[in-house]
Amino acid sequence: MLYIIGLGLGEESDITMRGLEAVKKSQKIYMDRKSFMGNQSHLLIERWLKKAVMNDVGICRLQLYHYGETVSTPFFTETWRPDSFYEKIKKNRALGLHTLCLLDIRVKEPTFESLCRGGKKQYEPPRYMTVNTAIQQLLEVEQKRGDSVYSEETECVGFARLGAEDQKILSGTMKQLESVDCGAPLHCLVIVGKTHPVEEEMLEFYKYGTAN
Predict the structure, then answer these.
(1) 98 annotated to bind ligand
(2) The predicted structure's pLDDT at residue 210
(3) 196 annotated to a ligand binding site
(4) Which of 83, 154, 163, 209 is the most exposed place for a label (fewest CB within 10 A)?
(5) 103 among annotated binding-site residues
(6) What pLDDT is stored for residue 205 in this prediction?
(7) Nearest-angstrom CA–CA distance, 196 and 201
């Protein structure tokens, strides 16, 4: 029997009880620290992150059945500024649904020079998109597309290090969260749709500028 066991979003101690039991009864254990981020496609990474994050974002008490389609927000470059996620957010908000934004992760990305030169690859330093960068890019796309899907006053929830002891959760407008330092990765963002009183109560608990 072969078990493939994820260790969660934080650290090794985030392993599930079933995963731990499988590890204990296994004769041989192999730990892969590189291939997942370095060699798997972004599609596989996105699927894994969506499943893992959706299990944890429920801590802010936005109802999971009230989420629309998940979107991915990639790092912009000078020549590549994709905005296909905008239409998905637009559809979600028209239906009053929350939108989970998975923020870009760049690990083991070959440098442009090494790709051109060939031979041994050299890699860019790891990059993890922050809530701040995500909001800046989202607002840039809104300004370009101009459909008033969201604005600086749109309510959001920013998450950092979900599942870890020092996890951080903050709710507030895009304008407020754009200036907040959420600390070390991994980050994700939820654009809030229509809410009911229970959700509003929890959003108030995690409100920017309050002690919680």
Answers:
(1) no
(2) 74
(3) no
(4) 209
(5) yes
(6) 93
(7) 9
